[in-house]
Amino acid sequence: MKYWIPAVVAVLGLFVSSCGESQVERLIQKANDEWVKGRNHSAVELFKSVLEKYPSGPHAEEALFRLGEIYHFGLSDSSQAIVYFMEALQLSRRGRFSYEAQRYIADIVEFTLKDYDQAIIENQKLINEFGHPEDDPERQFRIASIYFKKQNYEQSIVELEILLEKYPDSEWAEEGEFRIMEVLFTLNRCDDAKPHFEHFLKSYSKSKYMHEMDFVRASCLEEEGKLEEALRVFQSLSGQYRYPALVAMKIEGIEKRIRKVR
What we know:
Layout: H1 5-36, H2 40-53, H3 58-74, H4 78-91, H5 98-112, H6 116-129, H7 136-149, H8 153-166, H9 172-186, H10 190-203, H11 210-223, H12 227-236, H13 244-261
Helix pairs in contact: 1-2, 1-3, 2-3, 3-4, 4-5, 5-6, 6-7, 7-8, 7-9, 8-9, 9-10, 9-11, 10-11, 11-12, 12-13
């Protein structure tokens, strides 16, 4: 009879473990249900009770991740949300929720906290540390956009060129090419912008950015004193460009300049 005791203990252990797993999964489900119903504080307490029972492991990772989401979206406390997302990452850099937690951190730091220097770091982590190459072009574009927000236009161009070099076939390459030309115009470097326009015209002839590209090209022509050519391009944008009043103002201004010259 004594030989059966270890086997019985093992079976009981599995049974207890199974019951525990089932219990915590029900608790997580209940917490998620409370959140969906808009009962944020109730959901928070339930997820915290999960952490009390399971301070580590996949259940803890999920609880911390969900707490981050609730604090960010439900309670509008993004700083506390970041704390929970970071704790989830500390538990596991390769867990089920790690990449999404890092994405939240990067986006909150940029759009909510507006800490642009830190946002660059957090986006670079997404590229370097998490192994999701399908999302890398978007994050590279975000880094370039953040430098533009910082008015570091030269570095923004560098980051956009990295985007085009590393991910030439990505969906972000088209916008990246357009943004380079836009930044070059901002820097009064129209000569440098011309090759980008020619390449864009060949590669993305049906692009949704074509009218914006034409507006920038026409503005460069105007800056260069090529008024007749600039006028023709602006006139072609009448009724096409998203800011019709701006096109009308450009046309009127160039026509006045041409009359003065004549």
